[in-house]
Amino acid sequence: MFAGATSSLISAGLLKLDGKCGLAGWRWIFLVEGLITIFAAILFIMFIPKRAGDGSPLISMGRWSYFSPREKRIIIDRVLLDDPLKTREHIKITGRDIWKTVTQPTTLQHMFITLVAMSGFQGLNTYTPSMIKSFGFSAVRANALASVPVYASIVWTTILAYSSYVTRLLWWGKLDADCCRDKIGHRGPFVLLCITWNVISYACLRTSPTDASSWHKYSVIAIANVAYCSMHVLNVGWLSFYCKTPQERSISMALIVMSANLSGISGAQIFRSSDAPLYIHGLTAICALAAASWVQTLVLNLQYLFRRKKAQAGTV
């Protein structure tokens, strides 16, 4: 999120280089941000260790380590406490593992929640600078203003992620090893809360008066963008929580991230230039997508609730 918001600020500055060295502003954006990405990748390869417990990065050539032997042991123990199955090295993912994961109804539901909800968000996020510009702001200022709600989303998502842990913790009062999985990680209601924000804010944006001031219109679109991809972040944690093996978790994470990426394809088709400057059809579409994802999330919450009730009744 920080990278997304900061890239908008960088873009706002790079647009001022339009015409410099014979390059258009958008070419400067692709060139500079692309070089930053390559530089960051090189730093990670050189300085980040290959695995947990291995504190020797590539640049060390095996001569030094970030961690002492005691710290390495602590790191490995923490990994094993998180999932004892990780004691098995060289875990392989078979075709059977993939088939078993993709045929689980709840996994598919998590995928479609992300696909539907993020399609609406991706469409709005892509066109937010253009919409802000249509309010009377310059292109440079529109890109800078588009970063504000994303920075706010960092705070919003952090609060929700922490609350989804603490609320469950306070509800049960204490934790024990046997029922830790059921007593923390209560992500579902908070995913629903994020999507509820989308439903309400998108509807407000859709019905916002056309004769309102530029700053009034901007405030509405900023509020609509505050939720950003918070529902996807929490949905990933929600799905991961119910994965039983490393193989299932790896496949599930790949599927849900793939859904988020696919939403970029569908989301890019929602807003059209012919619909400018009011974008009535596009705003109507994202309202419908938000409403559909809200229903999907509610149904999945109820499914998990009934499953927990049934499991608790079976252990009494």
From TrEMBL:
Q: Which Gene3D superfamilies match?
A: MFS general substrate transporter like domains (1.20.1250.20)
Molecular function (GO) terms for this protein are:
transmembrane transporter activity
Can you list the GO cellular component terms from the UniProt entry? Answer: membrane
Keyword annotations = Membrane, Transmembrane, Transmembrane helix, Transport
Localization terms from the record: Membrane
> What InterPro entries has UniProt attached to this entry?
MFS, MFS_trans_sf
- Signal as a keyword of this entry, yes or no, is no
| Topology term for the membrane | Multi-pass membrane protein
Tell me any Pfam family this protein matches: MFS_1
> What are the transmembrane regions?
29-48, 190-208, 220-241, 253-272, 278-300
This protein is called what?
Vitamin H transporter
| High-level lineage | Eukaryota, Fungi, Dikarya, Ascomycota, Pezizomycotina
